[in-house]
Amino acid sequence: MKFQDLLAYQKSFELAMEIFEVSKKFPKEEKYSLTDQIRRSSRSVSTNIDESYAKRRYPKHFISKLSDSNGENLETQAWLEFSRECKYIEQEKFELLFEKTV
Questions:
Q1: How many CA atoms lie less than 13 Å away from 33 in the CB half-sphere?
Q2: Most exposed of 32, 44, 69, 84 (fewest Cβ within 10 Å)?
Q3: 12-23: string of b/e by CB count within 10 Å (b at 16+)?
């Protein structure tokens, strides 16, 4: 089995790609702040999952990486809320994306 076969990895990767597409429409002045941050945190969920898979033989390291992934997921939720409140994404799109983080 590869880490790419993990459902959590697949779902987080899909969400990161959706956020990437949505964030292309964010204003240019957000390029180095909100756009960068939401892309980084959403991608980090997947990368921490694959790192945890690599460390699965070491329970403390495995749990630590999964904890990091969860933290990045929560950060992504916060950036989605900022995106909605700044009117960069519609409520409906926010709900669709946010639901994928829970």
A1: 8
A2: 32
A3: bbebbeebeebb
